[in-house]
């Protein structure tokens, strides 16, 4: 057994010196998540060619190394772009990435003549930045609902929500689409106002209770304005994330 | 083997993996995997990557009983070290089926794997080992940890409902308990005063808004401190127990076996 293993190693070393890329072996390493062996194998490839960079790009994408992927992708762009699956996986990966600069670099650098999935994901990326650039018909039926939901919220202004809440407490939440919260906020503001008025009327404005009530009312009133402003921003983020997730699931 | 010793661990692992990949024989494949595991073990590496290699081994193709038992022994130990207790228990069962073992090392390993789950088995083994050396008696503390449960939660809750903060204080959180009592007393006093001054809207809103929140909060706090006290006690017992275990393992170390 030892002999046969040693002869195997020898054959293996000779095979390496010719630096032939064994694609199936790379797939085997990737499938079994053998990161150490995968790294060693790619490092052992002495020939510098597009193919080597392509496999390194694939490796870095699998193990979520953004910069490693981008470096190797740049060196083997033509070959990478021929691999539809790789481009789709990378697009889906970057679309869900938090680093805005990396996402921008990736999608701006994509060739327009790529496959349908990639085009769809690029469009989803652009729509996530500004949904007004497109109409609902641009997207497949399965994505239209998610897109429209995001577009509707995107066009809502956080400042308008704050303004509405300043006039009628809680109405900003209603504007943001949170009907239940509107009623609760409105009632609580009314209650705080009522108790402030009662204590002011009976004890005078300088009484500690009136001051406490007035302070509580002011704090609640102002936080309701800020809350409405933030509700629109949060809803935007939430719908955007949902749209991106739906697009990723659909095109991948 | 001269060739291997000249290479780094990663290179050697790659060579073995390539041999595994090229091999068409399942038995040879398992042997190569065992070589890989052995390679890690000779370098004293027992982390997740070794565990992943262990999971790749197909036991059905290990025909040599000695190799299989040695592999299972290592598999139990490495699974335990990687906190994979379910896998450790599976390998332990396979090992027991293959080779009835009453050695001290095996009993100790079984205690390690089952210390937080199977108390009856752990008790039995501790009793057996205590007959050999009294140092093993100390390991009974693991059963105490598993069986430790604070009782009478409702008593503490009712106590806090009648005298706010009393349940919390009885759980060992005296300052929080006194604070709860003071806040509740202050709230009740304030609400009575509001009624006396004829500020009915204020009285209703303060009692339903703030007063009620303080009251229910005090009961919730009692529940939280009840479980917190339980966790604290368990953590203390665990620290003492792990120390005892360390002493036992220093005296009777569990060693990995060559494959």
Topology:
The complex is a heterodimer of chains A (252) and B (259).
Chain A: H1 2-17, H2 23-31, H3 35-44, H4 50-62, H5 66-75, H6 77-82, H7 84-95, H8 100-108, H9 116-129, H10 141-154, H11 158-167, H12 171-175, H13 179-203, H14 208-251
Chain B: H1 2-6, H2 9-22, H3 26-42, H4 48-56, H5 65-81, H6 85-98, H7 104-114, H8 119-130, H9 141-147, H10 153-162, H11 166-170, H12 174-196, H13 200-251
Helix pairs in contact in B: 2-3, 3-4, 5-6, 7-8, 9-13, 10-13, 12-13
Strand-and-helix sequence of chain B, N→C?
Answer: HHHHHHHHHHHHH
Instruction: Tell me the total number of β-strands of chain A.
Output: 0
Helix percent band of chain A: over 70%
Please state the oligomeric state of the protein chains shown: heterodimer
Instruction: Report mean pLDDT of chain B, rounded to a whole number.
Output: 91
Percent of residues in helices of chain B comes to over 70%
Largest sheet of chain B: none
Number of separate helices of chain A: 14
Termini separation of chain A: 45 Å
> How large is the share of residues in beta strands of chain A?
under 5%
The number of E-state strands of chain B comes to 0
- Count of helical segments of chain B? 13
Strand-pairing-aware structural class of chain B = mainly alpha
CA radius of gyration of chain A is 29 Å
- What general outline of chain B do the C-alpha atoms trace? elongated
Report on this structure.
The complex is a heterodimer of chains A (252) and B (259). Among the domains of chain A are: 82 residues, no CATH class; 84 residues. The model of chain A has no long low-confidence stretch (mean pLDDT 87). Chain A is 78% helix and 0% strand. Chain A is mainly alpha-helical and 252 residues long. Chain A is built from 14 helices and no strands. Chain B is an all-alpha fold and 259 residues long. Chain B has a domain of 92 residues. Chain B starts with a helix and ends in an 8-residue tail after the last helix. The N terminus of chain B is likely disordered. The chains are: A mainly alpha (252), B mainly alpha (259). Chains A and B meet through helix 1, helix 2, helix 3 and helix 13 of A and helix 2, helix 3, helix 4 and helix 13 of B.
């Amino acid at each position: 057994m030892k002999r046969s293993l040693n002869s195997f190693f020898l054959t293996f070393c000779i095979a390496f010196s010719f630096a032939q890329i064994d694609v199936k072996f790379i797939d085997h390493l990737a499938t079994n998540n053998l990161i150490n062996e995968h790294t060693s194998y790619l490092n052992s490839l002495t020939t510098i060619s597009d193919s080597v960079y392509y496999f390194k790009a694939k490796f870095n994408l699998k193990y979520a190394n953004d910069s490693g992927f981008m470096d190797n992708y740049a060196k083997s762009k033509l070959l990478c772009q021929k691999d539809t699956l790789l481009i789709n996986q990378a697009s889906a990966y970057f679309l869900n990435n938090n680093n805005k600069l990396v996402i921008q670099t990736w999608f701006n650098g994509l060739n327009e003549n790529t496959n349908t999935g990639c085009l769809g994901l690029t469009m989803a990326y652009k729509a996530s930045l500004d949904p007004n650039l497109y109409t609902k018909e641009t997207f497949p039926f399965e994505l239209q609902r998610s897109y429209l939901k995001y577009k509707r919220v995107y066009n809502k202004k956080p400042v308008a929500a704050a303004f509405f809440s300043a006039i009628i407490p809680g109405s900003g939440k209603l504007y943001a689409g949170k009907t239940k919260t509107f009623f609760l906020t409105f009632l609580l503001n009314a209650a705080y106002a009522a108790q402030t008025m009662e204590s002011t009327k009976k004890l005078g404005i300088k009484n500690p209770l009136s001051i406490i009530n007035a302070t509580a009312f002011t704090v609640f009133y102002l936080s309701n304005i800020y809350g409405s402003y933030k509700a629109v921003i949060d809803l935007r983020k939430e719908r955007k994330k949902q749209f991106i997730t739906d697009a990723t699931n659909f095109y991948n | 083997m001269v060739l291997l010793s000249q290479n780094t661990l990663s290179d050697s692992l790659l060579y073995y993996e390539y041999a595994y990949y090229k091999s068409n024989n399942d038995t040879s494949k398992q042997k190569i995997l065992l070589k890989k595991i052995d390679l890690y073990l000779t370098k004293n590496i027992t982390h997740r990557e070794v565990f992943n290699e262990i999971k790749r081994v197909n036991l059905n193709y290990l025909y040599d009983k000695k190799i299989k038992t040695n592999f299972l022994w290592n598999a139990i130990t490495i699974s335990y070290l990687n906190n994979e207790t379910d896998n450790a228990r599976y390998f332990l069962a396979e090992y027991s089926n293959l080779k009835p073992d009453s050695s001290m090392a095996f009993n100790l390993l079984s205690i390690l794997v089952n210390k937080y789950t199977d108390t009856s088995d752990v008790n039995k083994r501790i009793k057996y080992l205590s007959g050999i050396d009294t140092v093993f008696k100390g390991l009974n503390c693991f059963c105490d940890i598993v069986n430790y449960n604070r009782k009478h939660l409702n008593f503490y809750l009712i106590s806090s409902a009648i005298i706010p903060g009393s349940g919390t204080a009885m759980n060992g959180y005296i300052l929080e308990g006194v604070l709860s009592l003071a806040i509740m007393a202050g709230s009740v006093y304030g609400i009575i005063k509001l009624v006396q001054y004829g500020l009915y809207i204020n009285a209703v809103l303060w009692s339903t808004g703030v007063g009620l929140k303080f009251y229910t909060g005090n009961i919730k706090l009692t529940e939280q401190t009840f479980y917190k006290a339980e966790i604290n006690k368990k953590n203390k017992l665990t620290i003492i127990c792990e120390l005892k275990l360390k002493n036992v393992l220093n005296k009777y170390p569990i060693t990995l076996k060559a494959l």
